Every structure is written in structure tokens, then in C-alpha cells.
Amino acid sequence: MKNMNKLSFLSFALLLVSAQTLFAHCRDCSRNSVVLWTSVGYSNIMNHSPFTRVLGGLGNAIGIGYEHTASRGFLLQTGIELSLYNSLMHRSDTLHIVPMIDTQLRPFDGLFSFENINSRQQIANVGPTLMIGARTANNFYFLIGGKVKFNIHGRERTNTDVTKRGFFPDLIGDDHDGILSNMPSHGFDTFSRLHESSFRLNPLFIGSFEAGYDFSSGNFRASRNSRNMRMRLAVFCDYGFSRVSESHNDLIINKALREREFIPYINGFLQHDVSSNFFNTLFTGVRLTILFNLPGRYECRWQM
Length: 304
Prior knowledge:
Elements: H1 2-23, E1 31-46, E2 52-69, E3 74-91, E4 94-101, E5 107-135, E6 140-167, E7 179-180, E8 190-198, E9 204-215, E10 229-243, E11 252-254, E12 264-266, E13 278-293
Antiparallel strand pairs: 1-2, 1-13, 2-3, 3-5, 4-5, 5-6, 6-7, 6-8, 6-9, 9-10, 10-13, 11-12
């Protein structure tokens, strides 16, 4: 029984020592800082359409804010962030048939095959952030919180290869099927098409998490003359959603300037065939943070 009591006492003492080691540096420690950060990584925008596949792209962000370090390592950070997301979306091949009339006034069906359909979206957002977290004695830290982003720019560039053929019921055609193809002089050929359009998103609500290392000096006694700048390096993940503001049914648009002519382009399809009421965004990567201590008398003892 005595051995059990001794073991319990030693375990409890070890737990106390570990907790003290973890948080001792924060005892009687309070600090206010201006915070600057920059982020880079993978981003994507998802519309949950069954006909699209999201490949994503490069995202980056910059921000400025204020952070308060309280006792026991508690962190409170708020600020404003500007982000730029890029995302590449691929759509399945499709065939579009249009009744047409040739130069000799003969009716035929124009067969337009769309392949290699890709749309690249770019959105810029700005908005406030609010994060809370903690910092440990070995200089690791984490922050978790939320952001609200307001869309200030949205651009979509859609590329596709379109092959035009013609079905003439009164002609034999290439394979005795009435279809004529590979005749550039008649417009039956393959063309590369690029269409650009703009869009706006509703406010984006984001859940955010980051964890990393704080490059502070080891044992020091902070005062007015202590080092005023610190750096952090972390990994992060931002996942957001935005309610669909509008959707369109015009996947294929005609950009011909003359009557009876049909020059089809694939329209931007981020807002086409949206199967849910929300868009989702993902931004994950590496974040570098620089902190500048604000003037003021404070004392912080690092103890191990």
C-alpha cells in the first residue's frame, strides 16, 4: 500500500513538473504585438457539380493585425487579411447539335464536339480574422478561429477545343453516314477557344487552424530593451463556404457577329450545374508571421 502511495505521489509530482515546464515561461507574462503575416500554398474552389473535377491551384494571402499574449500562454489575435485564390476546374467532353443552313441554303445539323474543357478561376477577398490559441514552453504554438471574407474580384478564363462537323441527310459523307469533317474551307475543322468572364461571390465564411514554431530567444528577461521582433513559421488550413448568389444555364454561348453564323464558346462554368446551394474553398500551406512588440513596460521570466 505504501509503495502504491509513493508511486501515486511520484506520478502526481511528475505531472506537476511537466505542466510547470510546459507553461512556466508564461507565468506573469503579458505582451502586445503588431502582427504581419504572409501565406502561400494550395487553393481550390468547389461547386460540387457532377460534371466537373477540381484540380486547384496556387493561393496566397497577406495580413496585418494585433496579438495579445496573456498569462499561461493564452493567445488572442485579430486583424484583416487579403487573399488571392486560384483554382483550375475540368469539365467532361460534350457534344452540341445546332440546326444550321449552309451558303447554298441547304439545311444541315452542325455537330460541335467540345474537348479539353478547362476553366481557371481567380478570386480576391478581404476581411477580418479572429483567432485564439496557446503557446508552450518549447516555443510551439497553435491558433484556431474564423474569418469572414468579402469578394472584391472574381475572374474566370475558360479554354476548350471545339471540332465542327456537318450532318447532311442528302449526302453520303465521310463514312457513308452523311457527316462531313476535316474540310477547313467549309469551316469543318478544330479550333481553340478562350472565353473570359467575371463573377461575384457572396461573403465567404472560413474556419481556420494553424500550428507551428515561434522563433523566440530562450531564457531572457524582457523589458523595454528586449528584442522587439519575433518570427513564426507554421502550417495552416482554411476551409470556407459561400452561398451561391446566382447560377446560369448557358454552358455554350454564341459569339458570332453575323446572322446565321454560329461560333460557340464554353461559358465559365463555376456557376453552372451547381448541385448544392454553396461553394466551398480550401486554402492550405505554409504561413510566415512577424511580430513587433508594442512599447510598454512588461516582465516575462523564462524558466525551465
